[in-house]
Every structure is written in C-alpha cells, then in structure tokens.
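During the no-cost extension, the postdoctoral fellow (Dr. R.K.) reprocessed legacy sequence entries with the updated structure-token encoder. One reprocessed record is reproduced below for audit purposes.
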Amino acid sequence: MQGAVILAAAGVIIKAFGAVFKIPLVNMISDTGIGYYQTAYTIYVMFLVLSNSGIPVAISRMVSERIAVDRPRDAHRVFRVSFILLFAIGWASSTFCFFKTDFLLQFFPNMENSAYSVKAIAPALFIVPLMAAYRGYFQGKQNMRPTATSQVSEQFFRVATGLSLAWYLLPKGEQFAAAGAAFGAAAGAAAGFVTVVAIYALGGGEKGALSAERAASEAGEPYTALSHPDERAARSADPAQTDESVPGILLRMLWIAVPITIGAAIMPIMNFIDLVIITNRLSGLGWAADEVVKTYGQLSGFANSLINLPQILTQAVAMSLVPAVAAAHKRKDVDFLRHNIQLGLRTSVVIGLPCAFGIMTLSEQIMLLFFPAVKEAAVSASSFLFILGFGIIFLSIIQTLTGVLQGVGRQMIPVRNLCFGAVAKVAVTWNLIAIPELGVKGAAIGTVTAYILAAVLNLAGVRRHTGARFDIWLTYIKPGAAAVVMSAVVFAVYTALHALTGMSALPTVISVAIGAAVYAVFIFLSGAITEEELLLLPKGRAAVRLLNALRGKKRR
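Re-encoded structure tokens follow.
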C-alpha cells in the first residue's frame, strides 16, 4: 500500500501537469493545431503500448520472484535481457514512425500536416521503452520511488519544453506549433530516463543488491528482500545463483506480457478507431479538410482531455481494491471479499455520478472556463463533452470492476469485455457519424456505448466469479437521487449568478463548489454512506458528529 500511495501521489501530480499542458496548449494553437497534435499522439500511444504496458509488468513480476528467493543476480539478468529487448522494440518503432510518416498518415485523409508532429514525437518511442525497463526493475524490488520521481521529472520537462516550443513556433503556423508541443514528449522522456538512470547508478542496480547480500552474509543472516520465512527456506534449499538462459527469460516475459499488452491496447485502439473513422467518413461525406481537422481536435483535444480528469479518483479506488480483493480471495474469506467488492463499487459510483451530472449540466460553461481563448471551438466541443460526460458513470464502473477481476485472477475477462465494447463502438460510430444531425457526436455516442456494454459485462463477470450481489437502492438510486438534486441546484445557482453578473467563469466555479457541498450533504443524509464507513476515514468521528447534527440527533 505504501507503493500504491507513492504512485497515486505521483499520478495526481502528473495529471495536474497534464492539465497545465493541455489547457494552455489548446488555447494557444486552437482546434486545428490540437487536431494535428492529437493525430500524432494517437499514433504515438498505439506504438508505445507494445513496449510500455505488458513488458514492464513482466519485468516487475520476474524480478520480484527472483528477489524473493535471494537470487539478485538472476533478477538483474532479467533486467539486462529486458533492456536489450526494449532497446530493439524502441529503435524499430521510433525509426518506422520517423521514416514512414507518410505511410502512417495515408490512413487519415486531410491530416498530412500532422507529419511534423509525428516526426517530432518519434524519438520518444525510443527513449520511453528504455526508461520502462528501469522502472520495471525497481518496481520488482518493491521500490516505487524511482518510478514516481522519474514520472514527475518526465512530465515537468514535457510541459515546459512542449509549451515553450509551441509558443516559439506558433508564428510559423499551427502545424509547426503542434510539432513543438509533440517534441515535448521526447524531451520529457529524455529527462525521465536520465533521472531513473542516475538513481540506478547511485545504488539501485546489481551492485547495490549484491552488496546488501554480502552485508547480510557477513552478519550471519541470509539476505532476503521481502524477509518472509518461506522465502528464507527457499534460499536455504537452493542457495545457488544460477544464470538463466536468455531464451527462457524472453519466453517467460512474453507469456506474462502479451495478455497485459492486449488489455492495455484496447483504449488506444478505441481512440485510433475514432481517428480512422472520423477522418475517412467525414472526408467521404464531402467535408472540407480544415473542418475535419478542427472537429477531430474538438473531440479529442477538448472533450476527451476533460473527461480524463475524474479518472484520477476512480483509478485510486481500483488500485486500492486489487490487493484487498486478492488477499481475501487467497484466504478464501468470501464474506470479506464480497464486502470489499460492494464497497468499492459503491465508492466508485458515488464519485462517478456527480462528475457525470455536473459535466452534463455545465458542459458549455466548463468548456468556456478552460478554453476562453477559443470560445467558438469550445462551444462547439461542449456537445461532445455532454455526451462523454454520461459515459463517466460507466467508465468508473469499468475501472473498479477491472480491479476486482484482476484481484481474483480473472484479468482476461475485462480485456474480452473491452474488445466487445470496441466492436460495438465501431458499428455505432460508423453508422451514426454519417447522419447529418449527429456528425462527430456519433463518435462520442459510440464511445459511451462501448463503456456501457463493457460495464454490464464486467458486472456479470464479477457476480459469476465472486458471487457478489449489489444493493440497487444503496448503490445506484440513493447516489443517483443526490446527483439529480445537485444538478438542479448547480443549474439554478449558475443561472441566477449569470443573470446578475453577466459573467460565465466565476458563476461556473461558484455553482460547482455549491453543488459539491449539496451532493455531499445529500449523500450522507440519504444513508448512501453509513456511519460505520465514515468512521473508517480520516477524521471520521468528526464527520459522524457533523452528520448527526444535520440529522438533528445525538450520537450515544
């Protein structure tokens, strides 16, 4: 849990940096420029998922297994082999992306000016996999600080370099400004790589591990990273440091990595589907090239950027669920397992509902708040945000139940369910986008359809494999009623303040703050969160006293 807290804290900082990057960037280069940038970034993520998802997890697991039985040399050998593998993957993907840009962009009509951005981001495809090898090695040693530190360093330099270059190159044209922003990813990757290598050189590598082993030996005790009696017994039974074969390490690594990579590729594939279908369908329907670029930029750069922000909280819920569920499943403690699952889903729904209703209620106002320099584009993108806002509810459920299924060893089920969702998205997006009244709104509807289907299938999978049942009244209806009340209050407050002041930004901020307070009060008064659950939180007793004061009763 300490490692989870460290990574979660780094995740919040990274998301904050991401907002600092994307919001001023959109205001600077407008919907056209962000369309070029997002095209390059979508291609970048598709390539990156091959090296930066499953393989680092496999490294972490394989290193951990060897450290646990006091085989630091073999653990470091895993790292060396993985580094070579990721070096090859990174070199191949970076080279292909840089020299075959025209080949890649032929699938996206009217996106030829994205070529500068694709070439600018290509070096990152070589550097990031190398950094991932170090991160996986440290995580296998249960040391999350190098990963967190390098992530923050990477994001800081990405933001600073990307925004500076975008501002400097903007007079030359939006396509060059977008390329400057894209190069920020390469600069950030280089900074993160230098950071993690420096940490490794200062004692995190094989030398440090072997020194620890020698020190323990001199003290008369066997060295073990996890200090567990079973692991000490394993060392005494097989103390030899045997070098494993390279093919054996590679096969084991791929056996672990491939399923994880497939799962991690689903979301980038869905974004890739959007890019392919939108550009091809709209061009086939006679849309002008600049309109295609602008509309795609509004969907991906404006709306999707804001939809990602609430995921910080729901991802934290999913992260905390995995070890709790895994431990209960391992002990065969069915009651505790189901309690964790039920509480996790309720927490996710309690978080997701107000985010969804709030975004839907003030979609245009929120767009204008974040993107005041491009008002026309912001207003146009607000319809996409409204539709995607509804999907937050189901995305919250997906993330939480994916954590549950991973915790009980059923990690392929959410992968399969997202695949079904992706197929549904293709069908819905392809057909709806051709309807003139809908246009690109059809792509947003397709995304929400995918989320709904995957959420329902995940629910069915959790019920089947854990026997967990969910109280509809407590899980959905009470939080839903509180969200509806909140939404009405937010709309009324904003309307009144806007009429009085003629402003938009300040009434939006005030109405959101008041809405959050109203939602919290109604959640507690309705009993959607019980007193016993409140007591588990920091300052829980104070919260219970406040709740009872609101209810007009005294707690014995």
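Residues 262-470 form one domain. Residues 205-240 have pLDDT under 50 and may be disordered. The remaining legacy entries will be reprocessed before the final report is submitted.
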